[in-house]
Specification:
This protein has nine helices and twelve strands. By secondary structure, the protein is α+β, with helices and mostly antiparallel strands. The two termini are 36 Å apart.
Length: 449
Amino acid sequence: MPTLTATPDRQALLRWYNRNRERTAQLFDLVSDEAYYSRPIALRNPIVFYQGHIPAFSFNTLVKKGLGRPSVDARLEDLFARGIDPHESSTSARARGNEADRWPTRGEVTAFCGEADRQVRDALAHGDIDQPGHPLLDHAEAAYTILEHEATHLETLMYMWHQLPLDQKRRPAGYRPIVDGPRPAQAWIDVPAGRATLGVNRGDVSFAWDNEMPAVAENVPAFRIQQHDVTNADYLEFVQAGGYADARWWRSEDWAWIQAEGTRRPLFWERDRDRWLWRGMFDRIALPAAWPVWVSQAEATAYARWRGLGLPTEAQYHRAAFGSPDERPRQHPWGNAAPDASRGVFDFQSWDPQPAGSHPAGQSAWGVHDLVGNGWEWTATAFAPFPGFEVLPSYPEYSAEFFDGEHFVMKGASPVTVRELLRPSFRNWFRARYPYMYASFRCVTVAGR
């Protein structure tokens, strides 16, 4: 995690911005023209929205609101200002429009993005972006906000693209998923009682989102946690045992969702006669037994109940991931060394997950694998503020609207989580019945069982 410095490094901010923009451009290059106005996920806006939204947010936040400069195109700045997060059963909060004539052309969007990018880059390089006491610019808050906003949206784009028909995406040259590897032998790891520090204090870092602050310490009783994520092979046992047809394992609201949707398997699985397939970004392949299963929090909870177990709390995850026998917290599960490809599957190393347990250099002090990378980790903790929470002036609606008891904390990282977000305090969250995320899980039980 970057420590707080007196003056932000403009060149570092520009490099990060350019890296984000290059990755976003590469993702949009994958999408065929025929898919541009489509909505691969019904509860999200069409693809065209996201190409405009990311630079519009950056321009609106840093250049227009922060520095007080004039508009590029007020209509498009408003059109692309904000996305949606409706309830899975919502009909009134649907995304806006789906027809091409309700949206600007791809050329118009590209031109708008180009000018917004030009002005944002100029602001990062030359603007007065660090103004003590300014509600948006104190410690360059708006600059960090736009960088992390785009970084998180890279994942939004990925899981949206995942739902497009395969023939509407351009397969990258040399694409080849890593499916070889045995199903890891699942073991239970005893984590002794100790303290876990969740969150971070504002004065200790260059930037953190409001839901990460301030730091809070919890005493965590001893518990046992699975060494590896639940794999596709593990989860297949639940499916074959009729888990999706048995209300005993599901919370009432989750069971109602399963019934209404007719769901009988994870979203990323398909059935081809007598074979199970994994529906990857660019191909359908035989279900890789050793890959972590990606499911909603509702499905993860049902599986855990079926096993007579539970999901870890946010504090238990922290204790397992960042705790150590000497009680000195770690920056990463493996220690304080910088993230690299040997430690896990993150930072766009892969389009897909990889076999669980195949990055032993990334294990925690207790010997738990893949706590960062290969899929976000669902917890049993409802997304809520830490005591002393204050909204972030540069993005006041970022967290507060989701403290509703319907969203659950996710920790760790997926294959497409950028390395800048690999910090202990970072919290992701989604609704329990949102199945599109690259989210895995593992189970816990009380010590001694």
